[in-house]
Amino acid sequence: MNAISLNSSGMNITRIVGPATAGVLIIFIGTAGVFYLIAGVYIFAVICMAMIQAGINPAGKSRKGVAAEIRDGFRYAVGNSTLLGLVIMGLVPALFGFPYLALLPAWAREALSVQSDGLGLLMMFMGIGSLVGTLILASIRRFERRGIFLLAISLAWGLSLAIFSQATSYAMALPFLLLIGLLSAIFMSLNMTLLQFYASAEMRGRIVSMAMMTFGLMPLSAVPFGAVAESIGTADSLSLSGLLLSIFAVAFFFAYPKFRSVA
Known about the structure:
About 80% of the residues lie in helices and about 0% in strands. By secondary structure, the chain is an all-alpha fold.
């Protein structure tokens, strides 16, 4: 848990520096210029990754095909009730908790009339919250009842998102973005920790890959909530996503009693 949280902290530092820097740079070099700069950073990252020598020679080669390996991973997760619950818990926030990332620019323009620098400030506060959340989790040596704590975090995340969506000023929006960033970061880090903890060594890579696949569904969830935003407004669409996340957390608490005892 400490290692995963520290890794997430490193990524969340970029969520603080990146949006704030980009929001200012857009004023001077334009949006296209910022995208060119980001592309250059990616190229630099590729060069750095190419220099890493670890993992060149695998310990052993599987005789199964890719499709068979994927089937084995899903069969293993379905056969383990704890892992299945964790995979589901990772999927639902991707569908209902993270659409705000795609809708935030439209919401900020409608609710606060912000420009690129203001949007950068909003995203920076969200990154600060995420960094604080992962550092808090990294500082905890051990705590019990992590399953029920994960459900509580999901419930609080949904309620915070629903309340934030109705903000009409920076004074209200920034604290809730800070809280949303904190809660979402704790949730994702803890969920990934539990997935790795309960998976066997030979299946750990496939279970983590399944978790990343659920996170990869996040852009798809932006489509229906974007359509809803066109009909009822961005604020109400965000509020709906938050309420759905909270409702699922409560429903999962009662429908999956074994998950409450996950240590």
